[in-house]
Amino acid sequence: MSTSEQQPIGSPHSAASTASEVLAGFDLSGRTALVTGGYSGLGLETTRALAAAGARVIVPARRPETARAALRDVPRCEVVPLDLTDLASVRAAAAHLADRLDRLDLLLAVAGVMATPERRVGPGWESQFAANHLGHFALVSEVYPLLAAAGGARVVVNSSAGHTLTDIRWHDPHFRTGYDKWLAYGQAKTANALFAVHLDALGRGDGVRAFALHPGKIITGLQRELSQQEQIDRGWIDARGKVIGPDFKTPSQGAATGLWAATSPLLTGRGGLYLEDCEVARVSTPDEPMDAGGVRAYAVSPESAARLWELSAGATGARPIGL
Prior knowledge:
By secondary structure, this protein is α/β, with parallel strands linked by helices. Helix content is 37%, strand content 14%. It has a single domain (3-314), classed as NAD(P)-binding Rossmann-like Domain (Rossmann fold), CATH 3.40.50. The protein has 9 helices and 12 strands. Strands 3-2-1-4-7-8-9-10 form an 8-stranded mixed β-sheet, with helices on both faces. The longest helix is centred in the middle third of the chain and has 24 residues, at 127-150. The chain starts with 18 loop residues before the first helix and ends in a 7-residue tail after the last helix.
């Protein structure tokens, strides 16, 4: 992938498209999808839409009973215990899936955290980098044989316009020299985008293509670590909790770009791209504001993606793929 490919391709959908509109006419019967975070917010909308189109959906969950309650009316849906910040849990879930599945057609990495207080997980990892990136990196690496067996699988990783806050902090990715919750979030979202770039480069020979995306601005459980006052001060909600921010999407609209990435025939033969509003995003300049859209060049750099992959593989000990 090169930045020359990072430009709109004429999608019939838009920022206003909903999950059901994107999947209208698709029959996903016989296909299996895995959706992290698939029991709340955008993930729940994604799970429901895929199941409505006929897919079998696997939902890894840190809180399995909560997930089962949220998904009790969703057909062909199975919950698998998994904590993305615990490598032993990731590997156990992957082993369980390997025993039960012979292929995995779609993997949508929707789970994430945002602007959390400083926390350390595993061997002292910064928790946002761990939950948003390293956990998904390890999971995809472990289930890669199932993706390769599908002969045309797609992996879709939720990034964010928040990636514009910072490139990877190569000198200090775990914020050992001072923590900033928004820079930590921004780094994790840049990592999500770079992960898709190198996964696509490694996987395309097996028919595994990968995409990253900005789902848009949506009020979901993602904001649970932010106080109401912080959200009011940012102009997202009013004092009654009503969403007032301009250009905010509904959860169904927020799930649409991920579902478009997973199914659109316009993306056949493509990969390693960053998407937004059900379209391939343009490359933005460093001086543009976050809300102007687009993707920073550093977040789709093949060289940085390969470097991050090496860092992540060393940290997690994940199995090599695409070799």
